[in-house]
Amino acid sequence: MQCVILAAGRGVRMGEAVKEIPKPLLPVAGKSILERTFDELPWQIDEVIFVVGYLGAQIKKKFGTKYKRFKIRYVQQKERKGTGHALKICQPYLKGRFMVLMGDDLYCQTDLARCLRRDLCLLACQKKYEGKGGILKLAPDGRLLEVIESPKIPPSDLINTGTYVLDKRFFDYPLVAYQNHDGNTEYGLPQTVALMAKNLPVYIEKATKWFAITRPEDIEKAEKWLVSSVSQLTG
């Protein structure tokens, strides 16, 4: 099974930390974010497709065409047109079901494995809403109805982690366009998945461990989070 890892962005909110290194290669407790992602991939995954852009040559140099047990392919996102566009350009290389992850988040293998039990799935984190992020609206049976970006009144306490299990039916739907913070048009992956969910059941799994690295201070927080996670596992 394949996993697409979106690792093309500049990570502008990281400031000087990403001036000479792409955000997914930033070290967290002695390992890069992407090395930690590889550690957490479920056994079903045997191929990784990286979507690269900003300083992508460093990611290619780091992992090559094979890393540990994984075959690796690279797809260049030449234009910054959003996460939906990033997945769309991978279409020629995808077969059957596949997983999609963000290249700058920390995951838990158990959560990812639970997602793979569903035909179509989105991983959500249940946490207090702080005014930003994609908030999920669900049907009574737990299916996805809508992903609402930064709503004033959130319909739930479930935040989209940007983790998906999809299949090639995703490409039957037109990419959903939206205006980003700079006023430019991008094509959103969560918005397009929500469109897909109007016809196909996309179920939700809740994350037990997930950490999004957004700003420089998040690196230290992530290291403490990792220590806390290990402590919980070892009792």
From TrEMBL:
Which superkingdom is the protein from? Bacteria
The UniProt entry, under SUPFAM superfamilies, shows: Nucleotide-diphospho-sugar transferases
UniProt xrefs under InterPro entries: GlmU-like (IPR050065), NTP_transferase_dom (IPR005835), Nucleotide-diphossugar_trans (IPR029044)
The molecular function terms of the Gene Ontology recorded here are:
nucleotidyltransferase activity
User: Which UniProt keyword terms apply here?
Assistant: Nucleotidyltransferase, Transferase
Q: Which Pfam family is one of this chain's hits?
A: NTP_transferase
- What residues does the Nucleotidyl transferase domain cover? 4-221
Protein name (database record)? Nucleotidyl transferase domain-containing protein
- Origin species, per record, is Candidatus Portnoybacteria bacterium CG_4_10_14_0_2_um_filter_39_11
Lineage summary: Bacteria, Candidatus Portnoyibacteriota
